[in-house]
Design goal:
This protein is mainly β and 77 residues long. The chain has strands spanning 2-5, 10-13, 35-41, 44-49, 58-59, 65-67, 72-76. The strands form two sheets. The chain has a four-stranded antiparallel β-sheet with strand order 4-3-2-6, with no helix packed on it. Strands 1-7-5 form a three-stranded antiparallel β-sheet, with no helix packed on it.
Amino acid sequence: MAQLLSPLPGTFYRSASPDQPPFKADGDGVAVGDVIGLIEVMKSFHEVKAEIAGKNIRFVADNEDPVMAGAPLADLD
């Protein structure tokens, strides 16, 4: 198992906007470079991209959760 970590502190969002589907859903596969969410810092949004590939993503951070840099966002098999 591997973890995808937050690159910076802020608010984690699983989709680009409330009316959009999440970038990835629990159980999805992930390739290197896939966007798994956004971190909002002072009204600026930064894409969180997977640095490793895997399958069966399971999010440990909920949508709109405040996160710290290095905090786990999701687990991958």
